[in-house]
Amino acid sequence: MAALTSAENEAAPTASAENEAAPTASAEDATVQQADHIDPTSRRARHAAEPDDEAVPRPTTTIPAPPTESDAPARPRAIGGTGEGEAFPVLAAAAAAVGFTALLFFQLAPLSGTLGLVVVGYLSFLAFYTVLVAYENPGPAVRAKVASVIVPSLAFVLLAALVLVVCYVLIRGWQSLKHLNFISQDMSFAGPLDPLTVGGIVHAAIGTLEQIAICLAITIPAGIICAVFLSEFPGTFSRFVRTIVEAMTALPSIVAGLFIYLSFILIWGHWAETHLPERWQWLAPGKSGFAASLALSIMTLPIIVRASDVVLRLVPGHLREASYALGASHWRTVWQVVLPTARSGLATAVILGTARGIGETSPVLLTAGFATSVNLNPFSGPQVSLPLFTFDSVKSPEPSMVARGFGAGAALMLLVLLLFILARVLGGRGAGNLSKRQLRRRMVASYRDARRFAERSRSRPATVVSDAPPAARGDSEEGHV
Predict the structure, then answer these.
(1) Which residue in 145, 152, 105 sits closest to 129, CA to CA?
(2) Cα–Cα distance, 312 to 353 (Å, whole number)
(3) What is the distance between the alpha carbons of residues 239 and 17, in angstroms, rounded to a whole number?
(4) How far apart are CA 122 and CA 116, in angstroms?
(5) Per-residue pLDDT tens listing for the chain (481 residues)
(6) What gap in Å lies between CA 474 and CA 30, rounded to an integer?
(7) What count of other Cβ atoms lies within 10 Å of the Cβ of residue 298?
(8) What is the phi/psi pair of residue 161, to 5°?
C-alpha cells in the first residue's frame, strides 16, 4: 500500500505538469496563427523549411496523341483561276440560263430584241450560278465566286464593245481607204455627189497634225512644270492650284471653244486691228488653226497635269534622299532623278492628254471654222480637222459622203495609234528596266569611270610618312591655332 501511495504521489505532479503545458501549447498555436494571418510570408517560409515528401515533383513522360481529322489545317481557298470542280457550276448555270431565256422570250412572254435577250440571259446566268454554288459553300465563298464571275464577264463586255466599234469603223471606212486619192487629195474639187475616186482627207489630216502639235508644244512643258510644282512644293497655293486643275478636268469642250472665241478672236482681234499698224496685223489671225490649238490646250492641260502629278508622287522618296545626300540641289534632283524615273508615266500622261484633245469637234468648229482645201499656215485662215470633217460628212444624206466620214474616222484611229506607239517609244521603259543597248552603255560608262579614277590616283604624288615622332610644341605654339 505504501508503495502504491508513493507511486500515485509521484504521478500526480507529472499530470499537473502536463495540464500546465497544455495551455502553453495552445497559446503558442494561437500566436502562430495570428502571426500567419498578419504576415503570410512567415507561413510560407515555415512550410518551405519543413521537408515535404509529397510536394517533390516526380519525372513524367508525355506521349503526344495522334492527330485527328479536325486538327488538320484547312486547305486555303483559291483566289483566282478555275479550281477543282469550278467548271461544272459555270456550265450548268450557262445551260440553265440559255434554256430559261429561250423559254421566256419565245414561249411564255411576248419579248423581243437582241439587247434584252443578252441582258436577261446574263442576269439569269448569275442567278443560277449563285444558287448552285450556295449548296456547297458558305456565304463569303459564295460572294467571292460570284464576284470572280462578274468581273471577268464585265471586262469581256468592255473589250467586246471596243473591238466592235473599231471593227465597225474600219469596215465602213475601208470603202474610202482603199482608194489612193483619199489620202492624197483634198475636197476642193469634190462635192457630195462625186464618187469616192475624187477627193480626200489630206487637208483635214494636215490640220489635225498642226493643231495637235501646237497644242502639245504648249501643254507638255506647262503641264509637267505645273505637276512638278504640285508634287515638290506642297502648300496652300499648291492645294488651290490642284483644286482648279481637278475642276478643269470636267470642263465642257464647248466652254473652252467659247472662251477662246471671245477672248482671242473677238477681243484681241478687234484691239489688234484698231491699234496695231498694218505690218503687225498678222497678230490678229481671226479663226485659224492656232486659235483651235489654244482651245485644245485648255482641254488637254488639266489631263496632263493631273496624270503627271500622280506619277511624280509615286517616285520613291529614298531616291530623292540619296540625291540630297550626295549634295545635289533640289532642281537638280528633280531634273536628273525624279523626271527620268517617271518618264514612262509621263509619256502615258501625254498620251491621255493627246487622246482628249485630238478628238474634239466643237472647239475647232468655233475657233478654226471649216475649209475644203489645204491650209499649211495655222496662223491665218480657216482650217479643218479630222473629227470636224467626220462630223460634217456623216450627217450628209449622200452615201459617198457618209463613206468619206467613216474613212476619216478610221484614219483618225490609225493616227492616234501611231502617236501612241511614238509616245511609248520615246517614253522608254519603266525605272530599272533597261534594254540591252542601255545595259551596254552603262557598262561602258562604268569602265570609263573606273579608268578615270585609276588615272587620277596614279597622277597624284605619293605621300611619304615619316617615322619620327612629331615635335612637341611650346606654350607659345599651343596658344595659337
Answers:
(1) 145
(2) 16
(3) 103
(4) 10
(5) 444 344 444 444 444 444 444 444 454 555 545 544 544 445 444 554 455 555 556 667 777 666 665 555 556 555 554 555 677 888 888 899 888 888 888 888 777 778 888 888 888 998 998 888 888 888 888 888 888 888 888 888 889 888 999 999 999 989 888 888 888 888 888 888 888 888 888 989 999 999 999 999 999 999 999 999 998 888 889 899 999 998 888 888 899 999 999 988 888 888 888 888 877 777 777 888 899 999 999 999 999 999 999 999 988 888 888 888 888 888 888 888 888 888 888 888 998 898 888 888 888 888 988 888 888 888 888 889 999 999 988 888 888 889 999 999 999 998 888 888 887 777 666 656 667 777 888 888 888 888 888 888 888 765 555 555 555 554 444 444 4
(6) 86
(7) 21
(8) -65, -40
Amino acid at position 421, single letter? I
| Cβ 427 vs Cβ 347: under 8 Å | yes
> What is residue 466's DSSP assignment?
P
**CA of 70: how far to CAs of 66, 138, 290, in Å?**
12, 18, 77
Contact 192, 173 (CB under 8 A): no
Angle between helix axes 202-232 and 289-313 (nearest 10 degrees) is: 40
186's grid cell: 483634198
The dihedral built from the CA positions of residue 361, 367, 371 and 373, taken in this order, carries a sign that is negative
Type of residue found at 297: S
Rounded to whole angstroms, the Cα distance separating 15 from 26 reads 17
Q: What is the DSSP string of 387-432?
A: HHHHHHHHTSSSHHHHHHHHHHHHHHHHHHHHHHHHHHHHH-S-TT
Burial of 66 (0-12, 13-18, 19+ CB in 10 A): exposed
pTM of the model: 0.66
> Which residues have CB under 8 Å from 413's CB, separation 6+?
166, 169, 170
| Residues 465, 470: Cα–Cα separation, whole Å | 11
If DSSP codes are grouped into helix, strand and coil, which group holds residue 276?
A: coil
463, with CB counted inside 10 A (0-12, 13-18, 19+), is exposed
Inter-residue contact 309 to 242 (CB < 8 Å): yes
d(CA 302, CA 250): 9
∠340-343-344 over CA atoms, to 5°? 140
Burial (CB count <10 Å: 0-12, 13-18, 19+), residue 127:
middle
Q: How far apart are CA 59 and CA 325, in angstroms?
A: 63
Contact 416, 331 (CB under 8 A): no
Residue 383 CA from chain centroid, whole number? 38
- Within 10 angstroms of residue 426's Cβ, the number of other Cβ atoms is 10
The x, y and z cell numbers of residue 93, run together, are: 448555270
